[in-house]
Amino acid sequence: MNDEKQPLLTTGPGVPIDNVEVQAVELVNDPSVPKTEKDKSEYHPAAERCLEHPTSNFDTLIHLLKGNIGTGILAMPDAFKNSGLIIGVFGTLFMGMICTHCMHILVQCSHQLCIRNQRPALSFSEVVEDAIATGPIPLRPYAKTMKAIINIFLVITQLGFCCVYFLFVATNLQDSMHFFHINLNVHTYLALLLPPILALAMLKNLKYLTPVSLIASIMTAWGLVVTFYYILQDLPPTSSVKAFASWHQLPLYFGTAIYAFEGIGVILPLENNMKTPDDFGGWTGVLNTGMVIVAALYTAIGFFGYLKYGEHVLGSITLNLPNDLLAQSVRAVMAASIFLSYGLQFYVPMNIVWPYIKSKLTSENALKHGEALTRFTLISLTFSAAALIPNLSGIISLVGAFSSSALALIFPPFIEIITFWPDQLGKYNWKLWKDIAIIVFGITGFAFGTYASLENILQHT
């Protein structure tokens, strides 16, 4: 018997799955038995995965919630300001539905390609590569190129998240210090944050970040509870805010909303590491359950936050809270939570970039110091971007519109078309038309959202 091991990917955009160790999936093949079509029809990827510590349905649900709830939820009131109250409610629910559907598409295509190629598990970029490599013949030479493009978007997205984290902590810290009559500009706080973030991001093993992540999760939950306590008090009538903002502002809403929902990168690692992966999909599965909770939270905080503060709402709802001790503690706790999560967010781009750079290094001295230098360079890049563009709402919208929309809305339907081309796209090719509609929606949001976000950033620079 020959043993082949296929490693599982740790994570993609969104918060890495810190409590799930990077494991190996063991696939056992017997070379004496030819791979026939019957073998493929009987192949079950989950049965071929050899997981030392598989996650339960509840564990997976918690990881899914953690992977989708971050700084984006605190920016939802600002998103509603750019859409209007009514459009924000229905738009957020619609966006959640589309994003959840695209997550289902990715899981289904991964399962189909695992069976087709007899592999126990695939990462996001591997799904794209395998789909094109076994898809229409004219596209097959571009399989590795598309895999590289997916990895580039993953890196851009995650570094964008890190940039937002830098700025979020700095702005909340700045606001908290006003309570003690300490008035420094945001660039000073960014500079003060650089050394501790460098130290945190130098941790190479996710095991060391697990307790840090647990503390951050508790802080985030507590901060959200207190935030709701403030925004639900003395609410004005709904007529005090706009039902629809303007067509010009709508792309900014799209960018912020898709940024908040962009957790598609954690979907395959979660499903790959489940004890019962069949429970992940379905109408009442883990994915739908988690995303309903996420969509409800986003809609609630966006609706009540915008209704409470109206046109004065800021890039993070925590910045609108009153200047009392409890509110200041929320800012401090949320800033600390996001600060502690930086290392986990940074793990993903580093996990993609470093193997590529490592393959180009030849000398022993370069290999010895190369990883630390790569970490320093990437962290400095996020610091520089935050310092050059100290506009929290603008950066969130730009990251969402440019990279998150591509990963969450454009690539999944494209993968489904390629995977099931040409005769498995449903009656009258309904899957094809549905996927084209989602791609057009994603590209439209990508183009107008990116343009509007860049315009907004330039106006406030």
TrEMBL record:
Which ranges does the record mark as transmembrane? 85-107, 148-168, 180-201, 208-232, 252-270, 282-309, 329-352, 372-389, 436-454
Annotated ranges, domain Amino acid transporter transmembrane:
53-453
Q: What topology in the membrane does the UniProt record assign?
A: Multi-pass membrane protein
Q: Which GO-annotated molecular functions does the record name?
A: L-amino acid transmembrane transporter activity
- Give the superkingdom in one word: Eukaryota
Q: Which UniProt keywords apply?
A: Membrane, Transmembrane, Transmembrane helix
Pfam families on file = Aa_trans (PF01490)
Q: List the InterPro entries.
A: AA_transpt_TM
> What's any one GO cellular component for it?
vacuolar membrane
The protein in question is named Proton-coupled amino acid transporter-like protein pathetic
Source organism per entry reads Galleria mellonella
Its lineage opens with: Eukaryota, Metazoa, Ecdysozoa, Arthropoda, Hexapoda
What gene codes for this chain? Answer: LOC113512363
